[in-house]
NAD(P)H-binding protein (Streptomyces johnsoniae), 282 residues
Amino acid sequence: MTAAGTTLVIGANGTTGSRTTARLVAAGHRVRAAGRRAAPVPGAEAVRFDWYDPATFGEAIAGTDRVYLVPPPGDSDPAAVMLPFLRQARDTGVHRAVLLSSSAVPEGGPAVGAVHRALPGLFDAWAVLRPSWFMQNFTGTHPHAHSIRDDGVILTATGTGRVGFVDADDIAAVAVHALTDDRAPRTDLVLTGPEALSHDDVATIVTEVTGRPVAHRHLPAGQLRDRLAATMPRDFAALLADLDLAIAGGAEDRTTDTVRRLTGRPPRSFRAVAERELTRSG
């Protein structure tokens, strides 16, 4: 590991940002925890940061030498706000950047794919994390988790397509490696769990773990898009519905050895995460 200076974690109260912050702090690294409300984070310096308010950029960057980047949620063109920030960060001393992207979004693809494409031209030390869909989508605050708790149902347009769902704790472990290892990965890293599961499989496991019946209900992509558009911009809802169709076509039916190779331990299974988080939450 490098003798890191200070790491700016953007989205430090989010699913992967909070876990990355906690791991960095536990390992003795200095962390500036950035969020829209500058909420206190144990062991870290809280700082306000808003992708849509460039006036917050300077204070957040000051004194940092690396950054963990969580894109603005629900934005179909995050490059418009992220690239000006990244140029400013580079010009003020940040030399390593680790970007959270998605296994469904290649370099140069839609949304954060444009930031992925630009990153190697901005920093010599960099990595792009491309995790599969989060296991925490079924246990936390994601619409799937609310639907499971409220209605006992998972609504998708994925059909029987399978996904290598990944634990957010495993994503954070890889993020810390990419931020602090002596040599930055300088590549994109596709992260999955140990097995590919359909949403029917997920519903079965959640039912077995919680003792409450959960079913997977398939929706046409257009109907799913319309439901999502009630809570987010319509163009982003359309993107998510298209990603479900890609899953139905087999685009996410894969597993990788990246978590084991970079952390030295196997990725956690969905059943293990469900037992850890759903039995705890009741």
